[in-house]
Amino acid sequence: MSIIDTLWQYIYKYYISGIVNDTSYNPVDTVTYAILLGVSIFGVLRLLEKLDVEIDTRFIVAVTPYVLAGSVLRVLEDSNVFTPPLRYLFVTPVIYFLMFAVTITLLTLAVTLQRKGVIKDYHTLFGYAGVAWTLINLAILLSVDQIKNPVPAAAILTLGVISTGIIYSISRMLDFTLLTNRLNISILLTHMLDASSTFIGMDWLGYYEKHVVPTFFIDFAGNFTNHPSFVMYPLKLLVFIPVLYMLDNKFDIEKERKLINLMKLAILVLGLSPATRNTLRLLMGV
Asked: Radius of gyration (Cα) for the chain, nearest Å?
C-alpha cells in the first residue's frame, strides 16, 4: 500500500466518514476542528477589520439569525430533505463553512451599500436578511414534516430559562458581576439550552451524544446516576464560566475588545447552534 493510499484511508476514517455517514465525532477530528476554530477566529477578525465592522452588541444581534438559519438547515438535513452529494453541505462541520460564506457575503453586501449611501445602517439590512432566511427555512421544514414532540421541546426551553435564571439570581445576590453582564448571561443561556436539549433528548427520547468530551463525561456519570446526561449542566458551567472570566479579566479590554467580543460570539454560536438544532430536531421527531 502506497503512502498516498494510507493517507487517504486515514483522512477518510477520521474526517470524511463522519461527514458522509453523519456519525459521532472522534478524538482526531475533534482536536482538528478545535484548532481550526481557533485559527479561524483570527482570520475572521482581520476580515471584519477590513470591512470596518465593529464587533459589538448590535453586530452580535444582527448575526444571530444566521446561526438560527444554519440550525434549521441542519434539521432539514436530518429530515432527509437533501440527497447526496448535496446533503454533505449541511452536515457538521461543512455547514459551518457554508454558513460563514453566505453570512460574510451578505455582510459585505450590506456594508458596501451603506458606504455607497444606498442604506443608512448595514446592521438593519444584514439582520433582517438573516431573519428572512430563518423564516424561509422554518417554513420549508414545517412543509416537509410535522410537529411531533411539543412537550419535550417546551421542557428544553423551560429548563434552559430556569437554570439560567437561577444562576443570574445567585450572581446578583453574590454581586458576581461576571454573570450579571447582559452578553455573558446570554451566552450562558445558550449553553444551558444546549445542556437541556442533551438532557431531554437522551433521557426522554433515547437520542445519543455525538461529541467526544460530553460523551466521556456522560458515560462516566452513568456509573453514579440513572440520569447521566444531567452532567451537562455542571460541565457547561465548569468550562464556560472560567473562559468568560479570563476574557473579561485577563485581557486588555480596551486594546483587545474586538478579539474578546469575537471570541464571545464564537462561544455563543457553539451553544446556540446545537441548542437550536437539537430542540427543533426533537420537536419534529427526526
From this structure: 20
Q: Which amino acid is at 178?
A: L
Q: Residue for cell digits 457547561?
A: 236
* Contact assessment for residue 249 and residue 243, using Cβ atoms and an 8 Å cutoff: no
Please give the Cα distance from 270 to 194 (Å, whole number): 9
Q: What are phi and psi of 220, to 5 degrees?
A: -65, -45
How would residue 255 be classed by pLDDT, with cut points 50, 70 and 90? Answer: low
pTM: 0.93
Terminus-to-terminus CA distance in the chain, angstroms? 41
Tell me if residue 25 falls in helix, strand or coil. coil
- Count CA within 13 A, CB hemisphere, residue 81: 20
The C-alpha atoms of residue 90 and residue 99 are separated, in whole angstroms, by 9
Measured CA to CA, the distance from residue 218 to residue 208 in angstroms comes to 10
Cα–Cα distance, 116 to 126 (Å, whole number): 15
Residue with C-alpha cell 414534516?
A: 145
What share of the chain in percent tops pLDDT 70? 99
Cβ contact 74:92 at 8 Å: yes
CA 197 to each of CA 3, 138, 190, 232, 269: distance values in angstroms, whole numbers, following the listed order? 43, 19, 11, 10, 15
The tens digit of pLDDT for each residue in 141-195 reads 999 999 999 999 999 999 999 999 999 999 999 999 999 999 999 999 999 999 9
How many C-beta atoms lie closer than 10 Å to residue 177's C-beta? 11
Task: Return the exposure string of 242-278: e unless at least 16 CB atoms fall within 10 Å of the residue's CB, then b.
Answer: eebeebbeeeeeeeeeebbbbbbbebbbbbbbbbbbb
Mean pLDDT, the chain, whole residue set: 93
Question: CA dist 171 to 38, 178, 237, 246, Å?
Answer: 29, 8, 13, 17
d(CA 256, CA 90): 33
